[in-house]
Amino acid sequence: MTQEPLIRIAIFVTVLLGMVMWEIFAARRPQRIDRWQRWPNNLLIVVLDTLAIRLVFPLAAVGAALVAAEQGWGLFNLIMVPTWLAILASVVVLDLAIYFQHRAFHAIPWLWRLHRMHHTDLEFDVTTGLRFHPLEILISMGIKLAAVTLLGAPALAVLIFEVLLNATSMFNHGNVRLPIKLDRWLRLAVVTPDMHRVHHSIVRKETDSNFGFNLPWWDRLFGTYRDQPAAGHLGMTIGIEVFRETRELRLDRLLIQPFVTPPLDVQKNIY
């Protein structure tokens, strides 16, 4: 696992550049806000998130898996199963944990304050999939470490899961066009951009749907799946009802958003 950082960076850059090119040549929706107003701030958030994780959780998730294996902690370190099965089951269960974590970040008010920064992007593209508040990232990592340890997930499974989660987050936030039939088939195996875009609708019942990031099955299984936005993908409004001025896209404004209380006249319509 000594090559983990290099593997993750290489895949991250490859997927990011691939999605950027796809968005340039086959955009799904026209964007009214220039990329240069949004992308530098969204990408700087990634840098801050990475620094926060390295500072608070130096071992991160793969390191936690190695420690758990050393100490014999967790389900797959206590029972004998084939390695391939432990890896496959771990990836699926960790994805399920992220699904429920995502629902919790919408349902619990103080967690929503952190998570709503992700939803206040006024456009929807590959960089939206990287835009999470550092405090949310730290809480998310804490949950992930607990899940990895309790599961006794193999380190390789955790690396696969982390790479998949990061790559599919960029993919399903992409402002990219897919043939309708292909999208319908892809939704059987992975969350597609059209599926996840519904989750970024300004309409609350649509925001509270399609929570999956990687595997699409959980939304159907737990009743949170919504096929299409009511206004259509070209007519829908991205974001939430507050923080709609372009100045809110600046890095400093993004970092203080969780601590800003919306005006009383709009609080009744949001979380």
From TrEMBL:
It is found in: Membrane. It holds the Pfam family FA_hydroxylase. GO terms for molecular function: iron ion binding; oxidoreductase activity. Residues 88-224 form the Fatty acid hydroxylase domain. Keywords: Membrane, Transmembrane, Transmembrane helix. Its main location: membrane. The keyword Transmembrane applies. It comes from Wenzhouxiangella limi. This is Sterol desaturase family protein. InterPro entries: Fatty_acid_hydroxylase, Sterol_Desaturase_Related. The keyword Chaperone does not apply. GO terms for cellular component: membrane. It comes from the Bacteria. The chain crosses the membrane at residues 6-25, 46-69, 75-100, 145-165. One of its GO terms (biological process) is lipid biosynthetic process.
